């Protein structure tokens, strides 16, 4: 019987292949991947963009947030010479020129909401951005009132992939990062070489975007605070491996994905620096089932005062980083905190 190993799952997630022995497992992996949410969906991209931008909930009324996809951000940072978003952001903390460049690009993606009633028959409408002195041009290919189809920056443009909102602010998902000017005019790039680290901004498969769509769908409105524990992708794969799941049992695991997701949600906003070590919180899974499924925030040593670990019923994980989205908090974890030590012991719940 074929075992679903972390290595094989990585092969499946990597894309098309011709390994005949992996066909069933990869099909199951595809379902798991769909269950955990698209890697480049609006929710996932919002997490990344809001991390770069700061608190989305603080945007003034009358503004629209342009949200480049995760792949678009990766290509942007690759163009600056960085292999991951993590390395770029770490460099930015020490290089004021790079920080200025990133800030300028991010601010360029906050624009005044177009007044569709005032555009008349115009198909191209220049819009002021939060980057002083710079505008972006909205193209209404379907005519006024139908929504923009593309947005053009001074140097690059992007297609509008999806329209929605983020914390009550209108948002447009873009397939590229807009550049307001030549990069050399915004600021110089960095030559620092800081090793990458696994944290909330880690790029690629090891990202905080692992459970973004399924988890962010549980947040409710902007006023409904919650805290979501998001393991990295590799942490999720390791968890599947630790459960010793066979391909015969993998279909059962898929039915328990909602339970795992619900166990990673505390229906209460928990700013980390305000929490007291050794405090336990009821999870969404506990509320749904009436069972005992708490998570406990704790410290590694008695000398520490701010929690840096999350303990569950079965295992514990280190908190890599935190970020705020709307009125909720996201903790990036290096392990997947599971509600039970076997798939069979996990409850069957619905998140509909």
UniProtKB/TrEMBL annotation:
Q: Please state the span of the N-terminal signal peptide per the UniProt entry.
A: 1-22
Q: Does the keyword Signal apply?
A: yes
Q: Which keywords label this protein?
A: Signal
Q: What's the protein name? A: FAS1 domain-containing protein
